[in-house]
Write a structure and sequence with these properties.
- It is a single chain.
- Helices cover 41% and strands 20% of the residues.
- By secondary structure, the protein is α/β, with parallel strands linked by helices.
- Strands 2-1-3-4-5 form a five-stranded mixed sheet.
């Protein structure tokens, strides 16, 4: 695991939280190069698809001038949802590394196993970065506590 990229994803998550968005951050890399990054912005962008993962994929695709991003790894602070898993498959991302489990909407291991589904024509490898799981989960808990 590359701590530098997950640390950057946490920084992006903190900035999303400070902007009133659910604190999730994502960084897409290939080798040692950051291709794109994003933080949650559905409220500010008035866009239900503006999840951190989607924003990172859009930035990377624009930079690469290609909707396919083979050989890339996405570091994200929260387990991706079904929409984001689908986008990872379509973008041909090689691997996703997530920090915290999302028991309500996570589609990698929590509610579904979409990235392991043999029906897809591309497999995205995945792993959980347990070193950052608590920090990411606490950031989310603090955000929602403050909103109540």
């Amino acid at each position: 695991m590359n701590n530098r990229y997950m640390q950057r994803a946490l920084e992006l998550a903190r900035s999303a939280g400070a902007a009133g968005e659910v604190p999730v951050g994502a960084v897409l890399v290939r080798g040692d190069e950051i291709l794109g990054e994003g933080s949650n912005a559905p409220i500010g962008a008035s866009d239900p698809t503006a999840h951190a993962e989607i924003i990172a994929l859009r930035a990377a695709a624009a930079a690469e001038q290609n909707y396919r991003l083979p050989g890339s790894t996405l570091y994200v602070t929260l387990e991706p949802c079904a929409m984001c898993c689908g986008a990872l498959v379509h973008a041909r991302v090689a691997k996703v590394v997530f920090a915290a489990i999302e028991p309500r909407a996570g589609a990698v291991v929590s509610t579904r196993n979409l990235l392991d589904d043999a029906a897809f024509n591309h497999r995205v490898q995945w792993s959980q970065d347990e070193e950052f799981a608590d920090a990411s989960a606490e950031l989310l808990k603090a955000f929602f506590r403050a909103r109540r």
